[in-house]
Amino acid sequence: MKTNYAYLEDFINELRSNGRYAFSLQEVRNQFDQSDQAIKKALQRLKKKKEIALIRNEFYVVITPEYRSKGILPPSLFISELMKFLEKDYYIGLLNAASYYGAAHQQPQSFSVITMKPSLRNINNDNLKINFYIKKEWSKEDIIQKKVDTGYINVSSPELTALDLVCYFDQAGGLNRVATVLEELCESIDATKLLYISKRYSPITAIQRLGFLLEEILDRRDLSDPIKEYLKTVKYFPVLLRPQKEKTEMITGNDWKVVQNIEIETDL
Length: 268
Known about the structure:
Elements: H1 4-17, E1 22-24, H2 25-31, H3 36-48, E2 52-56, E3 59-62, H4 79-85, E4 90-92, H5 94-100, E5 111-115, E6 123-125, E7 128-134, E8 143-148, E9 151-156, H6 158-167, H7 175-185, H8 191-198, H9 204-217, H10 221-231, E10 239-240, E11 258-259
Helix pairs in contact: 5-6, 6-7, 6-9, 8-10, 9-10
């Protein structure tokens, strides 16, 4: 009879041959007629050998030899399975999404996932940082399926990425970094699609700030002009480029009604 340890290794090899890198404790329970104690002991041994890692309660990833020195897989290889396990809709956003369009500039320090309420606790350990951001809704047409070794993952379109970067600018490393990434991301943005998503995007302040950055800082009127025309048809109010607590005079002098209260410099 096989040891607890060996049957689990067979299970993992089988997973790998099916192009999977992740599994849940429940799957192992369903597969083998073993006590919970025996299963957990066997998992613990594999964890010690750095052959698997526990990502979230009862959700494990298989660490293949090429990633063993890092102690973790790239999140893109298991994020789809994790979100399915958590029963949450999601997409990869912000700097991580931008990197899929060649616009990351620097390797993001954490992995940004946009999902819906109820909010999820961030995953933060030595070699893995996944930040979850909550959004009320988004449209399927603004999500692009990108192929990875384990199948497909959901990534925000260049247009949605641009608006999200401005909306969550603090989490993306500040407005200077956002402007730098936008400069490269602009090459992938379609003006018609950007206008279309702007009409559906909330909050409207993100549209104002993005338009301002595109026109005044990046000189991309081809992308900003259609949004400017759209804003003329709706109600919007003066806004600071960078939100702050102190009161300031709201004189903007531009069509975006954006007060430039911070100097923007791109790194490119």
